[in-house]
Prior knowledge:
Layout lengths: L2 E8 L5 E8 L6 H12 L18 E4 L2 E4 L5 H4 L4 E5 L6 E3 L2 E2 L2 H9 L22 H9 L7 H5 L1 H5 L6 H11 L7 H7 L14 H5 L6 H17 L4
Amino acid sequence: MNMLQVSVWRGAAAGEYRTYEVPRYESQSVLDVVTYIQRSIDPTLSYRFACRVGMCGACAMTVNGVARWTCRTHVAKVAEGNAIQIAPLANLPLVKDLVADMREFFDKWARARGQFVPSATRKDAFARVAADSRARAAVEAGIECIGCGVCYASCDVVSWNADYLGPAALNRAWTLVNDERDGARAERLRAVAGDAGCHACHTHLACSERCPKKIEPTRSIAGLKRAVAMAALRGEL
């Protein structure tokens, strides 16, 4: 049987890589490898997962230097010979081993006003959004984000600027800016217009290249830049 040499980050920020030998199987995912280590070799290994089928994003880790969903990443596609390196997501505080602290990620989502603010009450008629409108198309392009953090971990600007809101938060803001039912457009544009907002993006496209859902946060951020500029010209900011 072929064996994989799996180098796994252990400990907190001051930890180190440890190497484990794991049996290599056909159609084996990276999450399968991590699970084997935890269940059969070292039960103290900490990692996060839930659905195992690419719906929740909880199993995101750094595999050979690239942020990925480990449940949908096959060993055959990423192994260099019979070797793999697995680490926690970058740009986030480390809890332990392969578990990153996601609070910072979601705090920035909130700072970008990523929550829907209704403009109607339950006494009003149901809103009707035209399926063929430009705004609806913009929303559809970014609405499938599940908050896995892959784009955030892949973003160079986040690495340089700890205050930067990040691709996921800005993508969410863009979907709400285009939602005609939302009642906080002006406040949201002000929230993303500062030095840590959309204009901090350097358009490196790493977030769009790495997104497992094929969303293009770079396009959303470009839309926010235009919307902020137009709002500023109209005196709304």
